[in-house]
Each structure stands twice: as C-alpha cells, then as structure tokens.
Amino acid sequence: MRETIYRELTMEFLVTFKCLYGTNQDFNFDEEDTVTFRLGGVMTSTSVTSFSVALSIYCEEFNGTQSYRYLKRK
After folding, report:
1. What is the pTM of this model?
2. Contacts of 32-36 spanning 24+ positions with Cβ under 8 A
3. I need a labelling partner for 35 at 20 to 30 A (CA). Which of 3, 13, 29, 52 fits?
4. pLDDT per residue over 21-52, tens digit each?
5. Which residues are CB-neighbours of 47 under 8 A, at least 6 positions away?
6. 51: how many CB neighbours lie within 10 A of its CB?
7. In sequence order, which residues have a C-beta less than 8 Å from that of residue 73 and are 6 or more positions away?
C-alpha cells in the first residue's frame, strides 16, 4: 500500500516539475529562477535557492556566498 502512494506522489512530482529561468510573464514571483511542481494535488512554487536548501543540496550559509552566485550564472 505505501509503495503505491510513494510511486504516485513521485510520478506526480516528476511529471509536473518545471524550472523557470529568468522572468516569466505568466507568473509573478519574487525570485528570478523558480521551481514549480505539483505534489498531493497542490501546485507549489519556490525559488531555486529555497528548493536547493530544502533538498539539502546546498546549505543556507553557502547560498549567501560569492561561489553560489557564480554557480547561478552558469
């Protein structure tokens, strides 16, 4: 039973995941780079920076450094 729910949530996330770089006219986000996805039927949007912290890809301290700003430009 649990495996089915995890599979459904994973598929929903993967099918709806989008990363929007730069300004997008259809959305009014505070951040330039935005990640959008649906999970559990709820559409969610967040900045790439916040998404990377939530997934423990980068820590908040690193996000404020010159190195992180350089990564975002590539």
Report:
1. 0.67
2. 33/72
3. 3
4. 765 555 444 446 889 999 999 999 998 888 98
5. 29, 30, 31, 33, 34, 35
6. 20
7. none
